[in-house]
Amino acid sequence: MELTKQEQKMVEGKGGNAVRKSMEILTALGEIYGAKRLIDVTSVQIAGVSYDNLGDAGLEFLDDLAKDGKVKVLTTLNPAGMDLENYKALGISEDFAVKQKLVIEAFTKMGILPTCTCTPYLIGNNPHFGQHIAWSESSAVTYANSVLGARTNREGGPSALASALTGKTAEYGMHLDENRNAQVKVKLKAKISGTSEFGALGKAIGEKIKAKPALILGIKEASIEELKSFSASIATYGGAAIFHIKGITPNKTPTPKEEITLTREDIDKALSEMNMEDCEIDFISVGCPHASINEIAKLAELLKGKKVKKEFWITTARPTKRIADSAGYSKIIEEAGAKFAADTCCVVAPIKGRFKCLATDSAKGCYYAYSKNQSKTKIMPIEKLVEEACKEMKK
Ligand code: F3S
């Protein structure tokens, strides 16, 4: 890989130890993927924040970089293992909380904003069309490439941190035009709406064409919430880092020859696979990816004057929660007995074994509840989730 003089100095340690280590990571990745050069990034989002995933080895790695590392660009974090303010009410142990706070401290020392969310684009880390960025979280990566038209590979936690500390990434994969074009045309012959159905569509497409970028025809409109649900699901079930929806997403792509058709049956099949048998709902969660203020407003409207009978978490970004507080939504939701879990999510929080059957509107949430937390799942729209939440559990 060709490096500029300034980059060469960074490799030699002129920018300090954290920069030298970061350049080692970036140039190694560049060599592996055949990149010709490094390019500048304008935004970073770092995954691998939960102490549940990092452990003590990860914490030591961060502490070492934090000795002299400082970020060069706007950088936010993926969800942590707990709500950083309200973890006790969510049943997180003090031992875990101490370690998780040390992780956040190390990141903060490097100048990273302790905003722990998988929807950075909803809270101000919102790159525009054509910008090169280095993001980690798979749903955010797919959303950024597809809906915003920014350019990012799916970075690992260490490589995203390396980009934050240098302002650079290796130019390969999603940074190059030729890798962003659609490879399969998907004709959708069904009218779909809502986050749960867009999630089911992502599952149906992802399982059929895997990581190949799709050009989807037949969707007339899609909200931000539907697109974030779809981005999460197509990335989870297929691995795609980019998709195109004709008339909705901004990237240009040639029309591919390979073609598949999806019907109502395919959507219903995907939904029924996530609606498991012998699953009495004991946990309800909205906010995978993290809930938007629109979704929280909707929940406040639906929950007003009601009482939930089951554990009900709304996972969201702290800044979104603050808006919900000042708009009065949080009060209504909390009076109904539902709980906010800001900064975290049901997958990275250490809750394995606490619940047997999760109901959610998120196809990605279903995937990880089952695969990581061994919980059965039900998927349904938010309105139905609220209805279920207010029903007593059978004894
Ligand atoms: Fe976000 Fe956690 Fe879902 S990181 S996309 S809420 S699994």
The total count of helices amounts to 14
* Biggest beta-sheet profile: 5 strands, parallel
Q: Outline, from the CA principal axes?
A: globular
Instruction: Count all strands and give the number.
Output: 15
Task: Write down the secondary-structure element order.
Answer: HHEEHEHEEHHEEHEHEEHEHEHHEEHEH
- Mean pLDDT, to the nearest integer, reads 97
Which regions contain 5 or more consecutive residues with pLDDT less than 50?
none
Spatial sequence of strands, sheet with the most strands: 13-12-11-14-15
Structural class: alpha/beta
Helicity level, as a percent range?
40-55%
Distance between the termini: 64 Å
Content of β-strand = 15-25%
Gyration radius, rounded: 21 Å
The hetero molecules present are: FE3-S4 cluster
Explain the overall architecture.
It is globular and about 65 Å long. The strands form four sheets. It has a five-stranded parallel sheet, sandwiched between helices. The protein has a four-stranded parallel sheet with strand order 4-3-2-5. Strands 9-8-7-10 form a four-stranded parallel sheet. With 395 residues, the chain is an alpha/beta fold. The chain starts with a helix and ends in a 6-residue tail after the last helix. Helix 4 links the parallel strand 3 and strand 4. The longest helix has 16 residues. The protein has 14 helices and 15 strands. Helix content is 41%, strand content 16%. The site of FE3-S4 cluster has 15 residues, from strand 11 and helix 13.
